[in-house]
Design brief:
mainly alpha; about 85% helix; Cyt_c_biogenesis_CcmB
């Protein structure tokens, strides 16, 4: 729906399409991610499933990474739906292999960061408002890297020209892959 609204709202000439489509793609994925994070934790906390998970004999870090992987799968499905719609509506070409190298670190970074901040905001009164406030400023490096890499690929660039953006996303993933489980453990024990 977001992509269709962008298609009608923005004047897409051949010169501007390659400028706007990467942003539309990644903004749409971010929107879907935030809705997904909120819905997932809301369903788990209201039903008591989250406390059941914490009572299980599984380590907190395993729970964290399990949630991250489920979010990555959810975001992959969103992207698999969005990319063909973008190709049809905006008449663009995206190399699937190049998009894979961009999407994997981006989606893992979004999921790592999103899971952490969704957990932080789940016990707050205005959790639906707090997640974007906490999450969006922190995930800017991932979005910047994903948008710039996608833009380059759409304009005929190759992965070698995007290594710095991909490296930025991987560094972000490593940082949150280390800090995330430790922080998650402290948050859920309170």
């Amino acid at each position: 729906m977001v992509v269709v609204i962008f298609n009608f709202a923005l004047e897409s000439t051949p010169n501007t399409v390659n400028l706007i489509v990467p942003g539309i793609l990644w903004v749409s994925i971010m929107f879907g991610a935030m809705v997904g994070f909120n819905r997932m934790l809301l369903a788990e906390t209201e039903g008591g499933a989250f406390h059941g998970l914490l009572a299980s004999p599984v380590g907190r870090d395993v729970i964290f990474f399990g949630k991250v992987l489920s979010n990555v799968m959810f975001l992959i499905v969103i992207e698999l739906i969005l990319v063909p719609i973008l190709i049809v509506l905006f008449n663009v070409t995206l190399s699937p292999l190049n998009m894979l190298w961009i999407s994997l670190p981006a989606l893992f970074g979004i999921s790592l960061c999103g899971m952490l901040f969704a957990t932080i905001s789940m016990n707050m009164r205005a959790k639906e408002v707090m997640l974007p406030i906490l999450f969006l400023p922190v995930v800017v490096p991932i979005i910047l890297g994903a948008v710039e890499s996608t833009h380059s690929i759409m304009n005929g660039g190759n992965l070698d020209q995007n290594l710095r953006w991909i490296a930025l996303m991987i560094v972000f993933d490593v940082i949150y892959g280390v800090l995330g489980p430790a922080s998650f453990t402290m948050i859920v024990e309170d």
